[in-house]
Amino acid sequence: xxxxxxxxxxxxxxxxxxxxxxxxxxxxxxxxxxxxxxxxxxxxxxxxxxxxxxxxxxx
Length: 59
Hints:
mainly alpha
């Protein structure tokens, strides 16, 4: 439900991921973090919900 709402707001599919981990699962955390980073990199820069920088607003 949350993913559907985020997509409705303009967050592209794949930019939000959730995983349930224990503090004892360091190796699993690293694996999930690397996979998440890779999938977001493949999406490229965000096209929506991006805040303009101060310099861009005042040009």
